[in-house]
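Protein modeling request. Please complete all fields; requests missing the sequence field cannot be processed.
Requester role: graduate student
Desired output: 3D structure, token encoding
Chains: 1
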Amino acid sequence: MKYKIPVFLSYPQPFNSVQAKFIDAIQMYLDSRGLVGRTLGVTDYDMQEPLTAIRRLMLESNGLITIALRRSHIIEGKGKPSSDIGAIEYSLNNKWLTSPYCQIEPAMAFQIGLPILIFREKGVIAEGLLEKGVTGIYMPEVDLDQPFDSYLKGDEWHQIIGKWEGFVRHVVENKGKPPKLY
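Delivered output (182 residues):
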């Protein structure tokens, strides 16, 4: 049996077939590159509370990919409504929220130094870790209303995933080395 490098694959439960097919395509890509995506509640199960289980799985992983899929749709909404201190109100009309774990899991990976790669589905509000530049990495926005096959064959995908994969392989190499005292 060939060893596959474990990586943490974080995403909310898909609620439509396009999202499910996108996750499947990511998993097939990882598999083709000798990586295996591990997801709590999908590939791995634990009796502990979720944060403990996530941490355990994260420590066994060599990188993290988060796919911030659309989950809750805001038809009409406002950010900072009726501020009495001069904050500027903004529209949240026709925006999407994702799972809070799409913020929690990358933050946990960042804290232990794992290479992280975050994809945000178009329309998901870019806040917290989903804001560009917060973790110092480029964060692609994927439009799943368009055929995603062309995205997965494009330059952006190959360059970003290739660089992340290089970081992951470097983690694997470094985990095998003894610590240096000087």
